[in-house]
Design a protein that fits this description.
With 149 residues, the protein is mainly alpha-helical. The protein has eight helices and no strands.
Length: 149
């Protein structure tokens, strides 16, 4: 494990102890989740992403989220693929891009993009630009300009 991974795991364990996210009973069948389990897992993911903004950590990995949700990694991956119809990276990037759009739409946010992309959970500006443009059809700079026009 890298240092960042260890630090993230420790932080996530502390958050797990402090939060009231329900534990999900693992299912032996990776391809099947009953409706109640789907709702529980989706609600827990939403809580971790929206309220605790885990997506803002560029080192977030499927293993970290699985441990946080008390699910096997393969089972969480299968759930994300089935429920959201995307893979883990695409899901996390969707939260990152939604957050980036929210910040870029804020008229009080005047920091240059070079200072913002780490806040969105990206290691590099080029990756942020590529993912943002794929999601919105605009570069972050074009998106920001469009809101001020």
């Amino acid at each position: 494990l890298y240092h960042d991974d260890i630090v993230l795991m420790v932080k996530m364990e502390k958050m797990a102890a402090a939060s009231a996210i329900p534990r999900v009973k693992p299912s032996p069948d990776l391809a099947f989740f009953d409706t109640e389990t789907q709702k529980t897992i989706a609600s827990a993911i939403k809580s971790l992403m929206k309220e605790q903004t885990l997506f803002r950590n560029p080192g977030l990995k499927l293993e970290h989220l699985a441990k946080r949700l008390h699910l096997p990694r393969q089972q969480l991956s299968a759930f994300i693929n089935q429920y959201y119809r995307m893979n883990f990276t695409q899901l996390i990037n969707s939260f990152r891009i939604d957050y980036a759009k929210e910040i870029l739409n804020n008229p009080d946010e005047i920091r240059p993009l070079e200072q913002l992309f780490p806040d969105f959970g990206f290691y590099s500006r080029s990756t942020f630009n590529r993912v943002f443009k794929a999601a919105t059809g605009l570069s972050p700079a074009e998106f920001r300009q469009q809101k001020s026009a």
